What we know:
GO molecular function, one term: peptide deformylase activity
Keywords: Hydrolase, Metal-binding, Protein biosynthesis
Order of helices and strands: HHHEEEEEEEHHEHHEEH
Largest sheet: 5 strands, antiparallel
Distance between the termini: 33 Å
Structural class: alpha+beta
EC number: 3.5.1.88
Strand order of the largest sheet: 1-2-3-6-7
Strand content: 15-25%
Family: Belongs to the polypeptide deformylase family.
Amino acid sequence: MRRCMPWCRLVCGGSRLLREDANTRSEPTTGSSSFKQAVEEKLEKESQELGRVACYPHRSMTRPVMLVPTSQILSPLFMSSLMDLKQLATNLHCLSFSAPKAHWDAAVMLIKSNPDEVEYEVWVNPSVPGYDDRNAVAPMYGMWENCISCGTATAWVVRPQRITCRGYNEHGREKVQVLDGMRARCLMHELDHLMGKTIFHQTMGPEFVVSSVAMAQRHLWPANFPSAEAYVTIPGQFFDYVQNTTVIPPGMEWWYAQNMRNEFGNERIEP
């Protein structure tokens, strides 16, 4: 996920740059040449890193990846590839990232619970049986998702609120964890890529895919387009199909309050 979502990636990256620059000077420097140079260098570096990302429908984004033999998880080659993957995800300020996006044919993903976390959580050979079953009776969240490998498209995707994932950590130890909130959402998003899928495959139909420009012009959308739930949910929020209302992703309340501006507010769909 782009920081798997532009609203997170850009805000997070920009605010981090401002904080770092503010920590090095005792007075405002947003108009100084050094600040402008830092921004230009940051944008140039990010542009170069974007050139390394596989974009759909690249071959690596349209086929399942290979599982990593557990005997190779601690090998020098695997550790080197994992370090490169972490560095690329960090430079792009991604909330989650997976090996296929970096042209690496391996079942490896990196996730965070919120943009302010420094270290990525590593999953190798993750498995969540039935996570994309649209007929499941599990409680669901809807969300506008985008992806660094899918250009400027944003898609409405409905996923389970809570999942149980089995896999390995970067040290080759097996782990089984229950995930919810943004952490679960990011893991399922990256799991799609490991299966050769994208948000285009997981959305409910073509009308549920919009451009970033259209997303910025939601005030011009017809009422209840493309659905009542999607219409009232702004980027960065979940729509809780159990409570029938929008909610802030669990675990991101503080970050959301600091960085987001409610446009529709929390709205409940009346029957």
